[in-house]
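Researcher: Please translate sequence to C-alpha cells.
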Amino acid sequence: HAPLSWDNKHQEGAEEITYAFWEKLKEALAKRAKPHAPLFFLGDANLELSLAQTCYEGIGQHQPAKEGTHYAGIFGEFLEQHHLALPCTYRKIHQGQRHTFKTTLKYGGPRRLDYIAVPKTWLAATTKSLVLEHFDAYTVIYDHKPVAVEIKGSILSRQALEKTPRLDKRWIQSRVEE
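Model: Translation complete:
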C-alpha cells in the first residue's frame, strides 16, 4: 500500500515520502535469495497512469487517465527495473471498467489505483485482466475494488528431481509408543 500521492503533492515532504517508499520496496526485493521465483506485484499503488507513462516498457495504452498522478513516473520506473507489465493497460487483455477506486468528490471521480503486475515474459500468456465488481471483502468501507488476471500456461522446472521423494519410515519405526 503506497503513500497517497495525489493528495500529498503539495504537502511538505510528500515527494520524499513517496520516493522513500518505492526505494525501500526496491531494496527489499533486491535482497531476495537467488535464484528466486518470478516477481508478481499485487497492490494499491495509489498512482494513476496516463498516456505519458506508456513510454515505460510494460505499460500499455488502454484506458489511461486523462492526467497521471504526480508521482506516476516512479511506478513506471519500478515496473521497468523489475521487468514487470500491467495487463490492465493492454486492450487485448483487459475487460470492462478501468477504475478500481470509488472515491469521494475530494479526489475527483473514479480512478485506477490498484494493479497486478506480471513478469513481462508472461504477458503473452495473460489472457484476461478485470476489475472484480461484486467482490465482498466484508469491510464497512468498500472503496477499492480488487483486480484479477488469468494466466494460461505450464511451468517447467529447470531443476528436475534426481529421484522420486519417498517417505522415510525409519523415523516412524524408531519412535517409542507412550
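Researcher: Any highlights?
Model: The two ends are 51 Å apart (CA to CA).
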